[in-house]
Amino acid sequence: MTQIFLSEIETLMNMETILPYFPFLSQIRREKLLRLRSDSDRTQSILSELLLRKAAGDFLEIRGEEISLEEAPSGKPYFPLYPKYHFSLSHTEGAVLVAVSDQPIGADIEHYRFVEEAVFDRVLTPNERKAMLLHGSDVKASFLEIWTRKEAYLKWTGEGLFVSPDTIDTTRTYMNGRFFTSSFHGYTFSLFGNISEEETIIQPFSQKDILLSFR
C-alpha cells in the first residue's frame, strides 16, 4: 500500500514559534533550520519532518518523535531502525508532501506556475515534448506533470541532482516501477515505484493538526 500525506502551509513560522518543536526533530533538521533565513523556508522544512513523523508513527503504530531519522550521503533521509519502511519527502511553495510505502518510493510536488519555454529544451526529451504538445492548450500543466515524474523517478533511484533531467524519459515503460500523477488544490504531484493505483490513498492534513500532534 502507498499513502500520500499532504499539507498546505497556512501560517508562516519564525524561529520563536518553531523552537518548541525542536525536541521532536532530528539533529540534521535542527541544523538546517538554523541556517535558513526566510520564514517560508523554515515553515516548509519543519512541516516536512513533522508530517513525515506523523505519517511514520501512524503506519508503525508508535510515537513519531521516537523514530531515529538519518541522512544518506546522497542527502536522502531514512529510518535506520525500519529499513522496510520507505518514504519520500517533497515541498513546494505553499505545500508539503510525504509519500510512504512498503516498497521504495519517490515523490515530487510542484505548485501550478508559469514556466518559460526555454526550460523545455533543457529538461525534456523529444518524446516528452511531443507528449506535451498532444496534451492540449494547457502546456504548463502538461510540463509540470512530466517534471514531477522526472523528480519522483530520480528520488526513487536516490540520484537526485546528480543526473541531468533530460536523460529521464517519462514516456517510456520502466520494468521496475510505474508513475502515479494527480493534483490537489492547484498542486501537481507524482510518485514513482511499485505502485498500485487502486491501493494508493491520499490523506490531507491541516498545518494545525500536524502541529497539535507534537505538543
What does it look like?
The chain is an alpha+beta fold and 215 residues long. It is built from seven helices and nine strands; from the N terminus they run E-H-H-H-E-E-E-E-E-H-H-H-E-E-E-H. It has helices at 15-18, 27-35, 39-60, 118-123, 126-134, 139-157, 207-212; strands at residues 2-8, 70-71, 77-78, 86-92, 95-101, 105-111, 178-184, 187-193, 200-204. The strands form three sheets. The protein has a four-stranded mixed sheet with strand order 4-5-1-9, with helices on one face. Strands 6-8-7 form a three-stranded antiparallel sheet. A two-stranded antiparallel ribbon has the order 2-3. A hairpin with a 5-residue loop joins strand 2 and strand 3 (77-78). The longest helix is centred in the N-terminal third of the chain and has 22 residues, at 39-60. The radius of gyration is 17 Å and the shape is globular. 34% of the residues are buried. The mean pLDDT is 88.
